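Incident review: delayed structure delivery

Summary: a single-chain prediction request sat in the queue longer than the usual turnaround. Root cause was a stuck worker, restarted by the on-call engineer. No data loss occurred. The affected request and its eventual output are reproduced below so the record is complete for anyone auditing the incident later.

Affected input:
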Amino acid sequence: MKDRLLSAIHWLLYSHLFIGICAASITWLTYHLLDLPVSGAPPEVVLAGSGAIIVYILHRHLGMMRLIDVKLPNRYRQMLYIWPTTVGLFILSCLGLLYAFWQIPTKDWATLFIPFILTLGYLLPLFNGKRMRDLPFIKIALVAIVWAWVSVVLPIVRYEIVLLSPKIALVVTERALFIFAITIPFDIRDVAQDIQAGTKTIPSTMRLESSKLLAGIALFIALFIDIVLMSYYHLYSIGVFAGFLFTYVLSLGLIMKTRPDLPDIYFTGLMDGTMLVLVASVLLFERLLQ
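Output delivered after worker restart:
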């Protein structure tokens, strides 16, 4: 029974279905926070989930090709082991992406240009043989921008909300800061690999404790933004704010305990899972404090 449960967890994480669920969930959260109408499967939610699965599968397997002469880390060996079923999930995700494109109005397709170009640059060596993620300090910023754009900007554009209003700008910034903070542990995990490859990241150029402090500052600023959105703009209720606060405290605790030698499930399971914690916490505290 234990082996079956472990195999199921490995498939959930290393097929990248889990990150797809996380992406879809925080995109749905935007609908909830901004009180946008939801019916059926919103194409932005499907796009976020399917797109995340496709990008992570491509990224990991392109990464394995770059490490062909190097002993693969355990997470890559796990991905190779489940590859046949991952192919099926990849095909389903491509169908999900086609559905999303079909449902999103043509006039809104231009909003997909920025995340598409950034993601393409993240995956492929378009800059003198380098990917954008290989450029100094770019990787974590790319992740934060793309996730904030897909999970917040796309739903907002669909309902023709003024994107440049201070309130919406704060929502986008808050999401980017949260993603930035929970991504730093992944750079801590990969610090030895990045140093060997000559890729400058925050943990590879700063002390690990300083990197964690930077993540904490990002969460603190995000929490301050939530206070403004609750008290000044009255966008968030006390329950919503409590959900954010709980998630940030939990995330900060996990970040502070991060070490490069921790098992990969700590990162792909717990750190990525803070996105699901955010959604669940907001819904729970809304009900408890209504």
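Verification: The chain has one domain: 2-288.
Action items: add queue-age alerting; document worker restart procedure.
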